[in-house]
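Researcher: Here's my situation. A collaborator sent me these components and asked whether they could plausibly form a single complex. I don't have experimental data yet, so a predicted model of the whole assembly would be a useful starting point for our discussion.
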Amino acid sequence: PLAVAVAAVEVEATVMYGRYTQELGVYAKEEAARLRDGGVRDGGGLRRNTSVRSRAADLLEYEKDPCAKCQMCASRCQKFLISRVGEDWIFLILLGLLMALVSWVMDYAIAFCQEAQKWMYGGLDSNMLLQYIAWVTYPVVLITFSAGFTQILAPQAVGSGIPEMKTILRGVVLKEYLTFKTFVAKVIGLTCALGSGMPLGKEGPFVHVASLCAALLSKFMAALFGGTYMNELRNTEMLSAACAVGVGCCFAAPIGGVLFSIEVTSTFFAVRNYWRGFFAATFSAFIFRVLAVWNQEEETITALFKTRFRLDFPFDLQELPAFAILGIACGFGGALFVYLNRLIVECMRKQKTINKFLLRKRLVYPALVTLLVSTLTFPPGFGQFMAGQLTQHESLVALFDNRTWCRQGVAEEFDYISHSHAWKHPQVNVFITLILFIIMKFWMSAVATTMPVPCGAFMPVFLIGAAFGRLVGEIMAAMFPDGIHADGSVYPIVPGGYAVVGAAALSGAVTHTVSTAVIVFELTGQISHILPVMIAVILANAVAQSLQPSLYDSIIRIKKLPYLPELGMGHHEKYNIRVEDIMVRDVRFITLTSSYRDLQEVLLTGQLKTLALVESRDSMILLGSIERSQLQSLLSHQLGRQRRLEHLRQLAQDNGTHDHLPSLATDSTPSSPCAHTHAHINATTNTNTRQGVRFLVSTQQIAEWEEQQLDMPVDFKNCKIDPAPFQLVERTSLHKTHTIFSLLGLDHAYVTSTGRLVGVVSLKEVRMCIDLAVVSAY
Amino acid sequence: PLAVAVAAVEVEATVMYGRYTQELGVYAKEEAARLRDGGVRDGGGLRRNTSVRSRAADLLEYEKDPCAKCQMCASRCQKFLISRVGEDWIFLILLGLLMALVSWVMDYAIAFCQEAQKWMYGGLDSNMLLQYIAWVTYPVVLITFSAGFTQILAPQAVGSGIPEMKTILRGVVLKEYLTFKTFVAKVIGLTCALGSGMPLGKEGPFVHVASLCAALLSKFMAALFGGTYMNELRNTEMLSAACAVGVGCCFAAPIGGVLFSIEVTSTFFAVRNYWRGFFAATFSAFIFRVLAVWNQEEETITALFKTRFRLDFPFDLQELPAFAILGIACGFGGALFVYLNRLIVECMRKQKTINKFLLRKRLVYPALVTLLVSTLTFPPGFGQFMAGQLTQHESLVALFDNRTWCRQGVAEEFDYISHSHAWKHPQVNVFITLILFIIMKFWMSAVATTMPVPCGAFMPVFLIGAAFGRLVGEIMAAMFPDGIHADGSVYPIVPGGYAVVGAAALSGAVTHTVSTAVIVFELTGQISHILPVMIAVILANAVAQSLQPSLYDSIIRIKKLPYLPELGMGHHEKYNIRVEDIMVRDVRFITLTSSYRDLQEVLLTGQLKTLALVESRDSMILLGSIERSQLQSLLSHQLGRQRRLEHLRQLAQDNGTHDHLPSLATDSTPSSPCAHTHAHINATTNTNTRQGVRFLVSTQQIAEWEEQQLDMPVDFKNCKIDPAPFQLVERTSLHKTHTIFSLLGLDHAYVTSTGRLVGVVSLKEVRMCIDLAVVSAY
């Protein structure tokens, strides 16, 4: 049917970054089938197998669960909670340790891959064709393998992972994104993708890997120590720490990692989580760097891209306008990158022929992109004009170099141990090399990050920013060969400083964060350029935020993830929308006087997770909300085996026979279309088959009894009622609704008017309403 | 009456850090009088003139106000909001500029004061007695002036200000803390206090000054541009940015400033505020440093306490245990500092004779403390063993020095331009000097910060930490003169690095923050010691947090500010307390069928700001809550002049006379003890006196009419009802209640059971309950 088809398409769009590589094949069909059984809400492909849970409800369970059942367990509960805190720290240490190991091993493997490519390429220097084939085949094989592997094992591992984490931390559980399969696919896929030398980043996927690691560790600890680790609120806290660990151990930047993860994933942030993040990220970064020392790669713990700018006079005050212009330009560049990235995906999707072809041959697209990119970077070919033989790491080290390139006219001045010579072409100016590098890398990165492999865009963007900064710096150095400083001493301009500023500004613009400033300080080990970096990052952000959404928000929109978008600064039309404009007026509810029949009807017609309880149909005074599962158990208790048996026993006694035990193998009962009733009957059937059929009650009698039971009023005594579901008023503005929804992580809220239920508004309505406005704004 | 006396004592405890200096004098009496009229809640000295407002309610107003009245003003509203965003940035720039100027001028004045003291002291080197008198008199005069000035102008300016800001940002409005008087008192008092050279800090008060500045700027802008600047939600956002500015422009540390202010003031943090903070703090730090360059103090913008540690090998891996031990020791030291500080205040309060004496002569205490401290630091006296002649700034520069002191056996090696020679006594080892410095400064700082002058404890603690770190570093350097590194090259130990680590760790331990790590990087301009700093800070925090509350929380408790304390990690007994244990069961409510008489009674007996509206006395179903002012206006409308006149006109018409106009000069009406009714009658009286008495209606008739009016059921049509006041369940745990109260900034919440109102729990109950537990824990 149509619904299934819609669901299938939706699923696929969610799972994949690029829809074009995914056939409407086995996976989608399975998913669709799962959805049909599982709990698709009304029309909602948007909901799918995601279960949105109210954080407030979690909070309640959080404390209720260990204690709710008995009053006597107070001391046990206390012990439990103390041990929980201890376990928290153990958990964070384990997470940090694990992630540092993963990060280090991955880096090692990536370096090995890149060495292997260089070795192959270097060994074949007699024949350029062979050299070209070696240069090109290697990345194509790696990327194709990566794409195929993730495709087969876990298509959820594709892409950055930050958008998904943002959605998950918002309270939407995307369970398939936190499985062991995804972990394996992401780690191996990412290693291969980065090993290929394509302009891809490690940082976004690493946030996802860390979260996966945390989720799996939680499960493992739960299996080991019992239920503590199953609480969802706790998991959210741990995931939020894990995001910090991901960035922290990827760049050895604990502070920047914590801040970046806060900025990227949160709207409201609990300061107590900040602690966990700091602790875990520091520990992880520490281990990550210690491993490097133990492996004799480094003498001691220092920054990853250590710079050596002079300390006493890092920059002149008069250089600040140049830094400001650099920041503004990076802002435009960042917005352009996000736009370009989205444009490529949308183009591919709209072009029906391309789309169809790519959907059928899903590995063709990454292979083609890789072929194109590696052909263009082939060092003896076009690559010689854009430092093509350097890896990302080498390029960055060269760009952060504290010497000035443009004045080094003669080749002798170059230190051949460093990678700076790659930038210096015998015939071509260093400016041309830099400009070509920037332009080529810009579109290559935008294209490469749309490939269906695990990859991030942070590092490529960072590199482009560094190159752009270096370009500006070199121009400044050429314009003012003796520095700008007027009186006395000569302080030449440091183009490396511009590179640092550019890197922070462009990556800040693309991700809409200011913490990239902190990340560059930790990456370079120098903080002397703090003011230029801060100024450039803030300006870049101001420009980029007014032009485009952040890269992660853009991907969220492309993937149609169930995330509540931010209310941006510019969208003031939404201040005039009120809840009454968007609420659903046809609320499903039950009343205090409802019969079981009403209950059954409500359960059959809708798929809502919670139902409103009102006093009566006339007064409509909202008394609370009840979870679907509670109602189901009420109903199944009423019509369940226990009561059936009792009734039959009663009947039997009335008939004077003691062997009056039942056969209820009567699927023909007119009033049991409900799934759980079926299940119950089946269970009963099995039992009875074993016991043997001893007496046959007429189906008529059973049906009569059922009808009678259904007409009885519901007894809410043994039912958990949430007596204070979140309520809004009709005139509540969209802005306030948005704030409350994101602050409390709500799924839905009832709209009341002096206690009377008049409607319901769910995340879906709010999201749709904002989406419409946001889409129309860009 | 007793209530007033209690209120007076409470007020005074709130206003002053040290209660001992405040007479139960004019101020307290005035306050008490104000309270009596204003709105003291039941027994509550705790509530006083603070009005707690629900943030959710603010949010509502935030958007409702411009639009609520007409549907046609949509476009106007839009324009208004767009201009608002622009004004935000203007506001932040102005704030940054202003604060940078204040900070720079203050620094300049402080430096001038200290120079003056040195000059006086230096000029009198012929006579030691004169020298001593000059050395001692100068700070005593300054501190006494500072104490007297703040006493007279605004006693609220006393102390750090961070605890107050924490309370204000929690949603409690302490209006007297944000006045122009307080601003003047704080700025001048702080300048004098710091100019005296006592171990006091600038940072805490600067947070307060920045907030004052923001509040005043808001008022000014409101007067200039209209109502936009009066919104409370907006003010909170701006205050939160102002706190960041305060730290940022005090240390020229924008990132650290933002993080520190978040950690110190917030529980839940909106990431969008982070932006404003970053922008304003960066701008402010920039201007602050640019002013120094323009004033020829510096060649270019660099860090405030620039260090020059080597970059390639900042520390050895094997030194990390030493850093960890330093961190743990700082944790204990920090807890001891907080304990000592509180002990001094409590001792003073408990000793009745001391207390009485100090209350009478309020300037004696600061003068005595200053005399003691400056006597002990007198350079030719005991001061020679503890580098007494150095100012805080000079000491810090010396401690962060990158040379090793302990090996400099001969005096010639010292660079006499630097301040290191002060640490080297001809007879005494440098270790002894350092130990004496640490011990003396430790108790001196703890005592000095209890003086009733505007002062913070951050900087003194920072300095002690630096000295302690330097001590550990020097010991390490003495133990391993050639460094620890095993293979090949010799890397001597850098004791200055230990000083940096110690400073961050001790200040982190005292304030319970990790962002001190970022502050030291920005202060020193070097980030090479990032891992040791992070490790030490985290360990110091872990130790200090398990032993004592933070200094600011400790002051909040001493001052009895209306702040909801944190639920610490260790307080698990609170997981077993439920709302039903602490709620007030005797809720004042009105029903849908209430008469105006009931209304009047409720208004007269309680002082609650909002009242519950229930369906009926039997059902007790909660329909919403109504603000007191709404009810008052309902009541005054019912008994008001308009209706009185109408009634009298009616009477007159009935009597056939047209000149039947009223005299209502009847204070004897039995049913008008309510203040507003009085007011109304008085107003009417005035009008009538002017109009002249024309006809006399018998008091009997009026009273009858009033009785009749009071017996009518209330018409809620024109009354604003909040239809969704926050509700809890009886079994909600204290932990959840706490989370919800702090997340939403609630003042009170109703406790319901299936929609039926059973109790109310307010901030007061929650706070008292937590306080009891916390106090018992420490």
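Model: Some features of this prediction you could bring to your collaborator: Chain B touches chain A through 98 residues (CB under 8 Å). DSSP finds 29 helices and ten strands in chain B.
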